[in-house]
Amino acid sequence: MVLERDYDFWLLDLDGTLVDVEWSYTREIFDHVGNRLGREFTDREAEIIWNGLTGSRDRQLEEWGVDPREFWAAFHEEEDPTVRAEQTFLHEDAEFVADLDVPVGLVTHCQEFLAEPVLDHVGIRDWFDARLCCTEETGWKPDPEPVQSVMNELGVGHNGHRGVLAGDGACDVGAAWNAGLDAVHVERVGHEQRGRCVLGDYRVRSFDELY
Fold it and tell me: Alphabetically, which GO biological process terms does the record hold (predicted)?
């Protein structure tokens, strides 16, 4: 069982961890991207990339013969921040974050032009004392650099503070461990759909299991 007093600070992922989007939105985006690239994406392929089920999305795209740079360029051109936000919902079990009485940070692969409207739409902007949307410059999870950047902004980077990072992907667990933090893996899609189990210091299907 995880109690708030066990940790001096919390870090969290966004998509798939605190929020998710309606499947109809995901399906439509992949239809449009597929039209741009001249390649159809199946429901399973869309699910794998959207949720990062096989680890590195770029590596998975390359295995399918899709250039990651072309894919992401098309993907971001097709995404409308307003529509994305309107199709996003907050997981009820994530509401515990609002009650944390310790520094809280957000470390997400969701790009800033998409993340900011989502935070406003679901009303969770004020949950975080620091936020970082990963880029090529900041590095990507599981690299520890973006995590350490947020820790430094929170003032907990080098003072012996004990922290935890919670996310829905293997990259979140890797980033936590690489940065010297404990890791909570919340399994939103199910082990069967993922095709494997993701290890973590805590493995839950809902944050409600932590209390």
Answer: DNA repair
